[in-house]
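Supplementary Note 2. Why include the ligand at all?

Several targets in our set were suspected to adopt different conformations when bound, so apo predictions alone were not considered sufficient. For every target with a known small-molecule partner we therefore ran a joint prediction. The input for flavin-adenine dinucleotide is given below.
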Amino acid sequence: MGNSRREFLVKAFLGTAGLVAKKSFANNDLPKPKIEKCDCIVIGAGMSGLIAARDLTFPEYSKNGFKTILLEASSRIGGRILTMEDSRLNGPIEMGAEYLHRKPGSVALWKEIELYRPEMEKVRRMIKGYMYYDGWENNLRRHIMIAKEWKLSDILTFAKKIDAYSGPNISAKEWIDQQNYTNLGRNLVDLYFTGHIPGHLDEISVKGFSSDRISEQEMEWNEYGYVNGYSNFLDQIVQGVNQHKGREIDIRYGAFVKYIKYNMDGVEVSTADGKIYQAGAVILTASVGMLKSGEITFDPPLPSFKLDALHCMGMGDEAKVALKFKKRFWPDNAVILNRIDNHREMARTYFIPFASDEKKNNVLTVLFAGAEADKIKEMSDLEVIKALCRDFDKMFPKEAQEAGGSTYNLLETTGTDEHVYLRWQWSNDPFSKGSDSFLKAGMEKSVKVTQARHELASPLMTPGLFWAGEATAVGTYTQPCSTHGAHFSGSRAAIEVTQFLNNKKRTRF
Ligand SMILES: Cc1cc2nc3c(=O)[nH]c(=O)nc-3n(C[C@H](O)[C@H](O)[C@H](O)COP(=O)(O)OP(=O)(O)OC[C@H]3O[C@@H](n4cnc5c(N)ncnc54)[C@H](O)[C@@H]3O)c2cc1C
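The joint prediction is reproduced in token form.
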């Protein structure tokens, strides 16, 4: 790299400090930033980046063992996997990913579970999940009963219809309007579209929903939870290999990547703290929100088909609130609660993290997805908590009555009378910039919505720059917007880089 380029980077990354430095150094005496060299750089230590770095670092996985540096902007691993260990809340609480959605053996992430053996719990959402619907005589019913009453065949019919849809790139809302669904039917199909995908109903592409294979996930009867927390499982993956023959994944924290220069001969990556890294290849796992923000500069600029692929994608928002009560007021065998009627003020989904332990079963984690997350963004914690309790009062009138008129009176407080709760809004996270990607209804440019993820994942036309992360999870056995999809994409990118680096070696000698 020439001197002028180095000077530019020093100025760009030292900002004002760089200007001050310029006054006291003659131009050629500018301090030269230290350059670190390795075989591969991985950007982002979420599920996809950790797996890519693990696979590349250790010969057991890649049959090579490449010198790999993992650059992570924040001070922790996990990205959108974030377990909060707060002793006040009875145990580990998930503020990001909660469950593995697919059954054992169906996705490659289960191979890691076989290897590291985290304690897993089967969450029987169909059998032990409950749904409240304002207007039912017996308001709280098990999911399995609703499936029977609404006829499983009806549900399978609409799922098949969605997957078979091949018209223009319309939204889920337009599709539901065309089907003339009303009342419960409409609310159920709405939940089907927006329960896993964080976009608004009028943003989500029906064709994209189908090409993302979300119905395979929706049709699973059970979820699988990590008893000791999802983040703990990632620690197991990192520490497991670290203990192995004393080698480590080389993770650099606080390394926010601002600039990526790529070509066949190699890549150069610069971080906000002024460091420069050079390698044969780089894997980028940043979210669609980060890619769209423009905070990472590409040199050369990304080809237009990549930008057109990103144009087809949105980055939705999700938020979570965990609340502790003095005692449980939901059914003792419930693992998940849903409230889907239009009279609710807040969210549709409540997870019950300690359902199998009666002593700890007084905590609820509320998931606010898409429009619900947007709604609470500007609300204070107290406003959100009070509105949630008004929803609970409607769902559990007897219990609310017994508690003096409202479940609000059942909230656990600390010695200073503060409620015991946690709250996390993913659009406020500076490095995620939202919760998950989704395919958008509306105008397509050169790339069709159903091809967008393939194009984003493709390293063709970005030599040396490889792509991973949930938004790039495409294939027969995977889904985007998920940890198992992120895992799949990390392994795939590691294989691509292995082939690329080995080919380069062969052509050199
Ligand atoms: C509230 C919520 C609930 C969810 N529930 C589930 C669930 O139950 N089951 C499930 O399977 N999935 C769930 N998901 C989705 C799942 O968490 C994500 O799809 C998955 O974790 C994404 O992994 P990733 O590696 O693609 O990205 P990330 O986890 O976002 O990792 C990317 C990493 O890159 C870092 N980074 C970004 N930009 C830069 C930069 N410029 N320089 C350096 N580092 C950078 C970030 O800090 C981050 O650590 C949920 C998500 C949310 C938000």
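The longest strand covers residues 257-263. The longest helix spans residues 483-508. Comparable summaries for the other entries are listed in the accompanying table.
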